[in-house]
Amino acid sequence: MTTAHGAAPVVTVIAIGNPYRRDDGAGAAVLAGLADEFGDDPRVRLVELDGESVRLVQAWEGSEVVWLVDAVRSGRLPGSVHEVDATQLADLDDSGRRLGGGHLMGLAEAVDLARALDLLPRVLRVLGIEGVDFDHGEGLSEVVRRGVAEAVAVLRRDLERTLGPDPEPAR
Questions:
Q1: CA atoms in the 13 A half-sphere facing the CB of 144
Q2: Widest CA span of the chain, in angstroms?
Q3: Which segments of the chain have a pLDDT < 70?
Q4: CB burial class (10 A; 0-12, 13-18, 19+) of residue 98?
Q5: Which domain holds residue 40?
Q6: Which of 113, 118, 149, 152 is the most exposed place for a label (fewest CB within 10 A)?
Q7: What CATH number did the domain enclosing 140 receive?
């Protein structure tokens, strides 16, 4: 997966989830929030996946910085946003709670696979949005919509810092 210029993008943002399971669609909503500003930037790849480990590694291959965005369940306040080093998923937060979610098992497998194949990016972060409603259906709960807006702001700041100024347009 390379850009039109043949080079891998600097940053890959991967949304993991299922938009037909209510708040589990939070990752896709974050991508939608980034698409207008970064969707055509060849330095950024925006990808939506189901969390299968091999596809995750393939999607981030060649990128220096990778963000994985997913709805999570850790018992924290619904809609809260958590940032975790994906290579340290077993780490506990300050409250002693682990980040949880149905897709994080595939992510742990992807990290192990990428480590074995020497395909880990320089930075691999999880941005989890605490979900509350994972029933069948479409549409996010109001509190998760606010968490999505916060996650988009976090990623926008990081992308701007990582990428620096826009490259000069080709003539």
A1: 27
A2: 54
A3: 1-6, 89-106, 166-171
A4: middle
A5: 11-163
A6: 118
A7: 3.40.50.1450
